[in-house]
Write a structure and sequence with these properties.
By secondary structure, this protein is of the alpha+beta class. The protein has a single domain, classed as 3-Layer(aba) Sandwich (ECO RV Endonuclease, Chain A). It is about 25% helix and about 35% strand. A hairpin with a 2-residue loop joins β6 and β7. α1 crosses α3 and α2 runs antiparallel to α3. It starts with 10 loop residues before the first helix and ends in an 11-residue tail after the last strand.
Length: about 240
Amino acid sequence: MIDPNDLRLDLDRLEAIEKATLRFVVQALLDFQEEAAAIFRNESDQPADIAEDITREALDRLGMPRIKIRLFGKVDYKVARYCFHPEFAVRQALFVDSKAENVQGQTSATIQIGQTSLEVRQVRSRTPVRVPGGLPPIYRQNNEEYLTTTVIVKFNYTETNNQKELVSITLAALPNGLLQERYNPTEEDDIWLAGRDAPTLGENFRVRVSFRKLQQKARWRVQTIHVGTPQPFVWVE
């Protein structure tokens, strides 16, 4: 069992853990995609609620080695678990947040600042801003420490005559805050787009993660499942 703090000096291993975690979440949604499409087609709830239910059911069906503590945070699905690798194991605080939007918005996902452990560094209205993430890179609870890992699941759909058709699922592994200098070192070198919030109206800070920008840093961090197509899923390396 490795100490998550040791990953501060082994960022390549940290990235490998996040990569394996994304593979796990992708597999859960890949196995569940037909049911997901049927649920979107027939359910009358709000798309965001449908997305949350689908992600929870897909992950629970696949299962995982859980640690019996309760995590706290502004994320739909959160679980403490053991993450096993051939040469080590690590305690992980896994946060998976679900989004749903018309397919026209499939190039990005809006997140709350409480859903990332990165400091958001970007330029807004020609002004550099830095906003600390709301999640700690190392999550501490009950005298134990857990590696924080965040995955975004974005459901992209079309809508005709009030019926929603699931087109694709985009999954993105947000980098842990320890990887700040690799993924968002400056306000000009970032993975973000301006969030859909209105500070003048007192709305909380939000930001959009750009899937294109994130892929430019590491292609594997963004994977797409095309629903209802005959082509098999191919992992992007």
